[in-house]
Amino acid sequence: MTEAEAGRTDRRSASPGGGGIRFEDVTVAYNGTVVLDSFSLEVAPGEVVALLGPSGSGKTTALRAVAGFVRPASGRVYAGGRDVTDLPPYKRGLGMVVQQYALFPHMRVEQNVAFGLKAQKVAKAQIPGRVAEALRMTGMSPFAQRYPRELSGGQQQRVAIARALAIQPSVLLLDEPLSALDAQLRSGMLAELARLHRELPDVSILYVTHDQIEALTLADRIAVMNDARLVEVGTARELYKRPGTEFAAGFVGNSNLLPVTVAECAPHADGSFRAAVRIGTQSQPVAATSAEAVAAGEARTLCLRPHLLELAAAEHHDNAFQARVTEVQWRGSSHRVFAEVHGHEVRLDANELRNPPGIGETVWFHFSAQDAVLIPGSGAALAEGGAR
Amino acid sequence: MLLYTRRAQRIAWAVFGFFFLLLFVLPFGILVLAAFTRQWNGAFPSSYTFSNITAAFHKDPLDGLETSLITAFVSSVIALAVGTWAALALDAMRNRGGKALIQTVFMLPIAVPSVVVGLALLVAFSQGPVLLNGTSTIVVMAHCILVTAYAFQQLSAAITRLDPAYEQAAASLGARPYYSLLRVKLPLLLPALTGSLALCFALSMGELGATAMVYTSHWTTLPLRIYALDDRGHQFVAAAVTAVMMTITLAVLLAISKIRTRANFR
Ligand SMILES: Nc1ncnc2c1ncn2[C@@H]1O[C@H](COP(=O)(O)OP(=O)(O)OP(=O)(O)O)[C@@H](O)[C@H]1O
Ligand SMILES: [Mg+2]
Fold first, then answer.
1. Has this prediction a pTM greater than 0.95?
2. Number of neighbours of residue A372 by Cβ within 10 angstroms
């Protein structure tokens, strides 16, 4: 038995069920600079996890560690149900699509898709069927005879996916696959990827992106990275509704981050805690949700989503704070209001207002306690950056 | 075109035309003319003849053509194989010092006068244990050493420009290094391969310096024979032999340039 055959047999026995990806304390350094720091993450079989983070945060590096193009200085990488840390890339059997697609320019679409099957010495009789199937799934059947240079960007992207799918991997690695496409095509392809995953429910997908919309749309869970580290991981909903770090709050969705002081804290019916907090030197405390008990007098950051703030008359709401309007933008169907509260900028997004406030006017911003989340740390540094 | 105005373009063409005439048309034109000349006293030949060409195809010089073609073919194919192999190996090397060393070793033969290369071979192989003095092998060796440097240079440059994403895509699809070399890397390098084959062939056809040191009477390349003819006062026959050689070399280069795949149209 050749090594390739051995690889295939044990891949088949590993899935379904044994697939997925697992990083265990993976550290990667280039010339002594750590670009992935003790990274641990698990992608369950059939799960889509998005690696989300700013440029240079180490997302591609994490993906390359799974694919085998960088060697971790320490830690283990598991993929498709086995330890692949010491395997060369060609023995890992993972599908991978990179930003620039890297389609072989001297091969027709069909030959590109068949490449992996031929390289792995799949029985000749099976190849045409599997190529046709991969092309069908990506809608590229009519273009089988074209060369990559004769395709549009979106079509090349589909071929790259078809080529990766043809080898029937249990793990698919996608590195910003949509970044080379224009906005309109991108949203179309996003829906396409979601459909593909419904068609292949057993395939685990690790999806690298710095676009939060892509991550929220596609991923079961999102892993937020910053500065070579995993900052926070959770379902899209958790991260959006209950961010645990300022960084995640600012990176997943828009947010206003305000430094607050806790006045009091009590357990709530749903298992979380309700805290009364003061924004700056404000006399009237407001209510917010906290995942943990906090002692009175502690400093926290209050995360408020701009679209969950409302303009209100003070006398009608107990949960409101006062702010001075600095800018009002009319955006057709909506209004965006910027205001200042104790030296921090706060943004409010609302449906078109009948009577928008004037600049310099003092208004009340109301929110419901369950939409306001307390985060450890003082948000002074991020308060403005997060609102952009 | 970098020049936009008509005037600038016309001037550029005029300058180009002048140098083209001076450096290409004049010497090669006169050479071709001389190939058909019986006597040349004034500005132009006074009488024309085909006898030089016939003489060029006479047994003796024609042998030289065969010798030259075989030498050039064998040495450029070996040079391409060795040069490509070395360039690929160099690309895979991690050790910087080792890289620099290999690069220098391959550049050495073209950094010194080619006569020196011939001399070195002569000294190295005129006495045991390996005795090659007076064989065709030593001539081919000299050519190999010289043209491999060019093949190596060209391939090195092309390999550096090759996007590693292709090789990585191939590896992620399960292609072993050897398979991806054959099916991905070499096809993508084809333009550089044919280009450097042509260069090596042309250089070998025209090689004189090193060959002059190592040739033997039964393995005398055309440039040497042309030199000898000229030396003995048969300028017009020399010109005729040169014209024939030029034509054949050009034909071979043209044939090599026809080897191409889709990779050329990337
Ligand atoms: N081959 C390399 N040699 C040295 N440093 C590298 C190399 N590749 C990446 N880096 C560095 O590692 C860090 C992480 O890079 P990585 O490509 O993983 O970022 P990323 O999160 O994918 O960013 P982006 O969103 O811009 O693609 C960066 O600071 C980068 O400069
Ligand atoms: Mg990247």
1. no
2. 24
